[in-house]
TrEMBL record:
Descriptive protein name: N-acetyltransferase domain-containing protein
Length: 178
């Protein structure tokens, strides 16, 4: 499976913000409506304010027009970790100090309706490739994400480990070590 990924800010520089808004509005993801809305309403602002970086997985439709097959958003966000919430080995690898671990955040991940099975895993691999570059330049080997209960097994199969429910008890915090 071939994956062409470009950063949102790069595409914005190439086509302009108005055209970028129009392009993003074409993305449809029935499985993750909150992620779809993030891409359409918040991604450009988050990118402009350096809150996160959105990466678009692009493809072409039957007419040869560019389409968004999926996207993922990366950021940095600390993680509160209790020693009892993870194995001793994981706790040590996380470099926890005062119950806080520095972490990269896989903040959003969504594939477009109709995109083939396995595409999400390919985007996760691409995200980890980017995180590995960050680790090489800055350190930090923890990747975190927050997900719904129904996605715990999926992310577990992608190398993440459940830590706990987040503070509002709506999402689950999971980590992976790179």
């Amino acid at each position: 499976m071939s994956l062409y990924v470009t950063r949102l800010d790069k595409l914005k520089a190439e086509i302009g913000e108005e055209n970028l808004h129009a392009f993003l509005s074409s993305f449809k993801c029935s499985a993750e409506p909150a992620a779809e809305q993030f891409l359409k309403r918040s991604a450009i602002r988050h990118d402009s304010e350096s809150i996160s970086r959105t990466h678009l997985a692009l493809g072409q439709d039957a007419t040869g027009a560019d389409v968004i097959n999926g996207f993922f958003t990366l950021a940095i966000k600390c993680l509160s970790v209790e020693k009892e919430s993870v194995s001793k080995k994981t706790f040590k690898l996380m470099n926890v100090s005062d119950n806080i671990a520095q972490a990269y955040l896989l903040g959003q991940l969504a594939k477009a309706d109709g995109v083939e099975r396995g595409f999400g895993r390919e985007m996760i691999k691409q995200a980890f490739h980017t995180f590995a570059k960050g680790k090489e330049m800055f350190g930090c080997r923890v990747v975190r994400l927050d997900c719904r209960d129904s996605l715990i097994d999926y992310y577990d199969s992608c190398g993440f480990t459940f830590i706990r429910k987040n503070l509002d008890k709506e999402l689950n915090q999971m980590v992976a070590i790179i």
